[in-house]
Amino acid sequence: MALYTNKVTLKGYLGKDAESFKTKQQKTVTVLSLATRSGYKKGDNWVGRTEWHRIVVFGKSAESAKALRKGDHVEAQGELCSSEFDCITDGVTVKRRNWEIHAGNVRKVTPPASSATTSTGGDPIPGENAA
Questions:
Q1: How far apart are CA 71 and CA 127, in angstroms?
Q2: pTM: predicted TM-score of the whole model, two decimal places
């Protein structure tokens, strides 16, 4: 049994087209903005919440992922990673932490037939505050 596990699987809709670039070593990196939804029932109504995730894809998977477009239903698997950076506001430097998924596997999937009436209260909303 492993002492540590860092595995993430997310499935949702892209909020904007994939953004791809090359590193100095000419390796492809593709960045995706993926929306997932969750919610709960309050009285007779569903209260929905959209969470935006930054997905970073490297290598051969990045080459395939760069063809993904806004509104595509996507599944991404990888690791949760963080990086620290300085944020300067009004002359004060504060350390901040950024979280993203480094995905080794990304694929376009067919949404379930009932996606328009999900238990989280509504249609997928690609583009709403895309990260």
A1: 8
A2: 0.78
Residue 50 burial (CB count, 10 A): 20
User: Strand pairing partners for 32?
Assistant: 55
Residues forming a β-bridge with 82: 99
User: Quick one: fold of 8-38+47-110?
Assistant: OB fold (Dihydrolipoamide Acetyltransferase, E2P) (2.40.50)
Q: From its phi and psi, is residue 65 left (phi > 0), alpha (psi between -120 and 50) or beta?
A: alpha
Residue 111: both structure tokens together: 């949404």
CA distance 97 to 57: 20
Distance CA 123, CA 27 (A): 36
Sorted by where each begins, the domain ranges of the chain are: 8-38+47-110
**Using alpha carbons only, how large is the chain's radius of gyration in Å?**
17
Short-list 77, 80, 82, 81, CA closest to 104: 77
Encoded tokens for 42 = 């309050």
The mean pLDDT values, 10 residues at a time, for the chain of 131 residues are 95 98 95 95 92 96 96 97 94 94 95 60 50 59
